[in-house]
Amino acid sequence: MADISILDLVRVTDATDARAALDNARDLAGHAEGWGYRRFWVAEHHNMPGIASAATSVVLAHIAAGTSTIRIGAGGIMLPNHAPIVVAEQFGTLATLFPGRIDLGLGRAPGTDQLTVRALRRSLTDPDDFPQDVLELQAYFAPVQPGQRVQAVPAAGTRVPLWILGSSTYGAQVAAEFGLPYAFASHFAPDQLMQALAIYRARFKPSAQLARPHAMIGVNIIAADSDDRARRLATTQQMSFANLLRGTRGLSQRPIDDIDTYWSPAEKAQASSMLARSIIGSPATVTAGIAALLAETAADELMIVSDIYDHHDRLRSFQLIAEAATVTRARLVA
What we know:
- By secondary structure, this protein is α/β, with parallel strands linked by helices.
- Strands 1-2-3-4-5-6-7-9 form an 8-stranded parallel β-barrel, surrounded by 7 helices.
- The relative contact order is 0.14.
- The chain is built from 12 helices and 9 strands.
- It has 2 domains: about 1-160, TIM Barrel, CATH 3.20.20.30; about 215-334, TIM Barrel (Alpha-Beta Barrel), CATH 3.20.20.30.
- Helix content is about 45%, strand content about 15%.
- The model has no long low-confidence stretch (mean pLDDT about 95).
């Protein structure tokens, strides 16, 4: 049975502020630790009022300080936005403060619009530099070599594990070539999932970090005590996707009774395509959905997004998901 992990969006709602979003993320991570989740990741997003994780390493320190065993990481850092040495310094510091618990997922996209990209880094790099940047970053986490004149302090020797993230086959090729674990963003870009997994597994080269392929897939799962309740909770995420398609970046919104009153047929078609891999429903529905997804993909790990407006409903969803995963695990063993 695959491990289960959490990707939290650190959502700011129309009833909370950024501080509440950060504290809710820390609270969720503490619960997730007890429910058996392996990792708790947040992602770098900029210029988005509804997401409070732009200063990703700082957010991770807040979350890690409220937990004791669950792995904490970035899913991910958008490497073209940063000099690799700065990322190494930040995550080397996290690894020093929380040894053995820090992950660093790396993405090639900027994670924002082009105007914000220019504000982030005025001397823009070519995205095709991504593989070289990954190797540079990896070197900063290795022990200092004789004659090495530039060090990322205190990153040297921490060997923070790197992950390659992607929503296309490009990331699969990089992860396979470098012998790194691979996470596919099927929670918002599912079209090339199976092709990317096949490429990654077929081309994987063992490395010092990883002896065999480890494939994680992102999946939206919204669980509640009934299918109807879960479908209503899911309208928050559906509205967020509709807003993205409109170019609107607002706060997380309360669920509504009928999503078709909110989005147009064209928005529905496009958003539904992006959310096609979602599992939404009661514990029985979620259990069946997880089993089917694992049977299809043979994923080593599920990175679960449960984008729900109310914090208590979100806690309940992740608790039910953990229970569903336990049931699935027991059935596979039996």
